[in-house]
Amino acid sequence: MSSLRGLIRSAALMMMAGTMGGAIAVPAAGGPPASPVTLTFAGQTYLLRWSLNHQHEFTPPGQDDLSRWRDMVTINTYPGVSDGEGLAQVANRVLDNYRRNRAMVLRTSSIPRTAQQPAEHLIVALFSVRDSSEAVFARWRLADGRGTAVVYSHRLQGPEAAAAMAAWLKTQGTAVERSLMSLREVPSHRLLEPTIP
Q: Is 19 or 189 the better-scoring residue by pLDDT?
């Protein structure tokens, strides 16, 4: 695991611990479900590669080495969050955490609740460490009565990573954000965490 991914994973775990009053739950059934769990994002199939506590990481075929991935979708669930106010608090804490960890916040947005749908929140941020650059598009929503974050990350490595990421964001950033905000079919916490209420 690279130091950049470790930083982001640690930030996510710290956020989950804070949301649950400092307690981190046990792994979901000791890891991922027995049958392959997939999701489709922007026309690409992603397979569940890693699960711990309430964090679940998916990568496309050919990117199964979690120390060398380029594209990842992470689902974080928040068992103590079941309403719009709690969801906004989690999103704001993650935003503060990103800033504390020196992320460049590129965009934030909130979609107000309607009679048919609760509010949603978006953070787009860029993490750069040495020869690695990672763009993070994080969306918070209520799903199956639980606060859920769906995070798409795109990572580039090498001495030209920052310049390549700037070019990628310019050409792909808007489309990625649209894909994330329109994503409806996401594995439920009931599937990902069957033994956790």
A: 189
Q: At what angle do helices 3-19 and 84-100 cross, to 10 degrees?
A: 140
Distance of alpha carbon 45 from alpha carbon 69, whole angstroms: 14
Q: Where are the domains of the chain?
A: 3-192
Question: Which residue, 57, 86, 92, 56, is CA-closest to 71?
Answer: 57
Cβ atoms of 139 and 181 closer than 8 Å: yes
Is 63 strand, coil or helix? coil
What does the alpha-carbon distance between residue 59 and residue 151 come to, in Å, rounded to a whole number?
12
Q: Which residue has the tokens 């979690």?
A: 66
Residue 61: burial class (beta carbons within 10 Å; 0-12, 13-18, 19+): exposed
Q: How far is CA 144 from CA 3, 52, 83, 118, 147, in A?
A: 33, 20, 11, 12, 8
Side by side, the strands of the sheet bearing 104-111 are 38-41, 44-52, 55-59, 71-78, 146-157, 132-143, 120-129, 104-111
**Residue 192, token pair as written in the block:** 């990902």
Residue range 59-103, pLDDT digits in tens: 999 998 888 899 999 999 999 999 999 999 999 999 999 999 999
CATH class of the 3-192 domain in this structure: alpha beta
